[in-house]
Amino acid sequence: MSDQAVETRDLVREYKGGVKAVDGVSLTVESGGIFGFLGPNGAGKSTMVRMLTTLLRPTSGTAIVAGHDVMKEPDVVRRRIGVALQDAAIDPYMTGRELLRLQGVLHGMKRSDCRARADVLLGRVDLEDAADRRVGTYSGGMRRRLDLALSLVHEPVVLFLDEPTTGLDPVSRVTLWDEVRRLNVEHGTTVFLTTQYLEEADQLADRVAIIDGGLIVADGTPKALKARIGYPLLSVVAADGSTPDDVARVLAGFGEMVPGAREGGAAVRLPGGSTAMADAVRALDDAGVRFAEIDLAEPTLDDVFLASTGRHLAGSDDATA
Amino acid sequence: MMKGLAVSLGLAGRNLLLVRRVPSVFIPSLIMPLFILIATSGAFHGIGALPQFAGASYLAFTIPMAATMGAGFAGINSGMTVARDLEGGFFDRLQSSPAPRVALIIGPMLAALVRSIFTTTIVFIAGMIGGVWLPGLLSLLLIYGFALLFGASASCWAIGVALRARTIQAAPIMQLVVFLSVFMSVAYVPVSALHGWLGNVARFNPVTYILTASRSAELTGSIIWSETWPGLVAGFGLLILLGIFALAPLRHLENR
Amino acid sequence: MTAAVPVIRQTAALAWRSIVTTMRLPQAWFPALFFPLVLMAIFTASFGGAPGTIPGFPPVRSFLDFAVSGAIIQGVLIGGTTAGAAFATDIEGGFFDRLVASPTSRTSILTGRLGASITLGVGQALLFIAVAAIFGARVDGGLVGIIVVVVIASLFAAAVGGLGVFLAIRTGSGEAVQGMFPLFFALLFFSSAFFPLDTMVGWYHDVAALNPITYLVESMRLEIIGGATIWTALAGIGIALGLALITVGASALALRRRLRVAA
After folding, report:
1. Which residue of C33, C37, C39, C42 is the best one to mutate when testing the B interface, meaning the one whose CB has the most B CBs within 10 A?
2. What is the distance in angstroms between the Cα of A161 and the nearest Cα belonging to chain B?
């Protein structure tokens, strides 16, 4: 039994016309952890998940999920994984309970087992009251919880979540995070989640891989990745007749500049932290440079993304879709 | 094997559940065969005077056609459900489960067959109200049997289209082919009365033999083998061909 | 008089737009041409032996001559339903609101749509006669006969168009209007569109005898197969006109009520 929940080697998915949604991805995910797959829209996250969950055939490369090759033994893989994709794949005309039971049947469970399991899962995701209502009447958060429950019916070894909180309100999002953590801790389920929200990756994942344009651009624990960036970032926005270049000239003396990090201003990595910040402000004053905004920020995964790709991660700052 | 059966039954049950839950989609397909029976036998009643009918009741002649059409509609509906699932994403759930691929077709097909039994029965009852009493159990059996055969084939056709088109917009294609296959055969008159181009087309159309066979026990109550066996060959042949048509894309679902 | 000119021009412009958008969308015009023609072909081939053999069948040269008028009515009916659905889509999509917010005269919103329906109806009638002629059918009434047929077809087109607009305004949904289509199709079957009234029996015969569509079809049919008189022509035109007045009137009222509420 391998220790790795997921292992891919040079995985490629090419579409007609030569578009490579996934362009040679090699990664490993250790069993028992939460793995975050972070990237902007169109980076190839969903394509990766679909290949790993046997819904899509890779053009080349190999993928071993839960110890089995997705192309050679898809049925075995299907029995060991749980899948909750974007757009919560549900049938709006059935009730939550009916869908859970059907999922059990699909996995070859006995009728009586299906019923029992459905009851247990409904309790776990807190949908007991709505269990006999049609799913079409559920809120977005409820649908995601049901989707999660559906993916757990057969007690999978690896759980795949594709953008589980996209479009959810902040409260539902936190609820889902708690549930995912609990799954991981109490049941030892390995979780492979994709997300476009760096906060989600930061909070939930033990390890993060950042994907852009079908390729991995960074890979490691959130802490390690951020530490690689280095010191906190001081960014200043010019105002009132002073230009970004004026600001940059002053800040250049304090550390390594980060071009493009702040619109209408300049940003620098400050080795001294908050004490150095006071010096920088004084320096700007002395030079007669006026500024409208100034802040000191710890490195974030967005900074990691920026450093690797030269662009910001879309939607990185807020929790709205 | 047993698991395949269980999954098929589970999916069939879900389809039938949808009939109750979303009546707007299924009611037309339940009322249509009844309408066809009444409208056809009423409007074209006079054609029964043609010598080729030999005095038989035109209403009785129409019953098998209406039953077969009803089964065809039921088959189309099962295809539309698959298309809707593909479009809405529910099919992903079915596909990523270890359910045998065949069950994804057999399930909806079984539901279509159940609905076909239902519509055929409605047609029979309407026929009885109209005064037609079929001579013997055998004629009943033939009509049900061939309706189911046609319904299964229509189901395979519609599901095959759904798996390839992956959208509910393909519904007209499903419907058109089924309609034309019935109309371009002996829907309204026996094969001996068909003129010109339609006579030629009908002779190549498997539905012609299915309908003729379906009617073959109506007159006397006992089977006229020369009319029945071509229907069996045509019916099962059609089912096998269309079954392959429906199964083929299952292998390559992961390629899309 | 000066107020009428812009209305006419606007009507023409909106009618033109409706016609063009219909022609550009295959699912809008295809059913109205395909189904009547295909059914006409199938019925002709299936019932070819009927004329001369079946009691109650009028004297015709061939079944095709008999079938043309029914096909025209069917085509106009399908076309009208599609037109109603298009109007509903305009409402759903906001085009209708844009018209209302512009200096377009209210009348032309309706007359434009009806103008399009009538034009398309005339086109259909002529097309079906031409197609039937290719396969051997002849119009016994000659040019006058053709004119009568076209007039009845266009009035019926206006009637169905009016009904479509009425339903569109009341339901506001293209899907709901399309859903009515089977109902109209049923109405067509309970008439003499496909087979002679005199061959029907029992309650079915009685229903068909009460159906105004039967008389429209017969009036047109007589022009083609022979036996038409000035009275049969006037009867058909009169009934079509009556239907048109009812539905167009209803739709005009519905339109006015909606505009009043919206304004």
Report:
1. C42
2. 13
**Tokens standing for C84?**
């109603």
Scanning C121-150 for CB atoms below 8 A from B yields none
Q: Can you tell me the distance from the alpha carbon of A161 to that of A201, in angstroms, rounded to the nearest whole number? A: 12
CA contacts within 13 A on the Cβ side of B13: 14
Query: Are the Cβ atoms of B98 and A75 closer than 8 angstroms?
Result: yes
A116-129 per-position pLDDT tens digit: 999 999 998 889 99
Q: Give a yes or no: residue C4 inside a domain.
A: no
Average pLDDT, 10 consecutive residues per value, chain A (321 residues) = 80 87 90 91 88 90 93 90 80 88 88 90 90 90 89 92 88 88 89 90 91 89 82 83 85 81 81 80 87 84 82 55 37
Specify the DSSP element, H or E, that contains A201: helix A198-204
How far is residue C204 from each of residues B61, C187, C190, measured CA to CA in Å?
17, 12, 7
Q: Does C189 reach chain B within 8 Å, measured CB to CB?
A: yes
The pLDDT tens digits for C80-106 are 888 898 899 888 888 888 888 777 788
* B97·A107 Cβ contact <8 A: yes
CB nearest to C46's CB, from B39, B46, B198: B198
Cβ contacts from A onto B, under 8 A: 77
pTM (two decimals): 0.82
Q: In chain C, what's the furthest Cα-to-Cα distance?
A: 63
- Name the residue range of residue C256's domain: 57-262
Task: Report the residue of chain A nearest B20, measured CA to CA.
Answer: A93
pLDDT of residue C262: 59
- List chain A domain ranges: 4-221, 231-298
* CB of B24 less than 8 A from some CB of A: no
In sequence order, the 6+-apart residues with CB closer than 8 A to the CB of C105 are C6, C7, C10
Residues sharing a CB contact under 8 Å with residue C261, sequence separation 6 or more, in sequence order: none
CA distance A154 to C6: 71
Domain residue spans of chain B: 2-255
The string of DSSP codes covering C189-238 is HTTTSSS-GGG--HHHHHHHHH-HHHHHHHHHHHHHHS---HHHHHHHHH
Helices (H), chain C: 4-24, 26-46, 63-93, 95-101, 106-134, 142-171, 174-189, 202-210, 212-225, 230-262
Which helix (H) or strand (E) segment holds residue B81: the answer is helix B58-88
Give C55 to chain B, closest Cα distance, Å: 8
DSSP class of residue A192 equals E
- Cα distances from A319 to residues A5, A170, A171, A221, B23, in angstroms, run 29, 7, 10, 22, 39
Q: How many independent structural domains does chain C possess?
A: 1
Beta carbons of B195 and C45 less than 8 Å apart: yes
Point out which residues pair with A38 in neighbouring strands.
A195, A210
Q: Is residue C8 part of a domain?
A: no
Tell whether C30 is covered by a domain. Answer: no
Q: Is C35 in the B-facing interface, judged by CB distances under 8 Å?
A: no
CB contact under 8 A, B46 and C199: yes
Residue of B nearest to C44 (CA): B195
- Which residues of B are less than 8 Å from C208 in CB distance? 43
- CB of B250 closer than 8 Å to CB of B101: yes
How near does any CA of chain C get to the CA of B219, in Å?
A: 21
User: A4-221 belongs to which homologous superfamily?
Assistant: P-loop containing nucleotide triphosphate hydrolases (3.40.50.300)
Helix and strand totals (H; E) in chain A: 11, 14
Pick from B181, B60, B51, B190: which is nearest to B124 by CA? Answer: B60
ipTM of the complex: 0.89
* Fold category of A231-298 in CATH: Alpha-Beta Plaits (3.30.70)
Q: How confident is the model at residue B242, as a pLDDT?
A: 97
Instruction: State the nearest Cα–Cα gap between B16 and chain A, in angstroms.
Output: 11
C48 interface with B at CB cutoff 8 Å:
yes
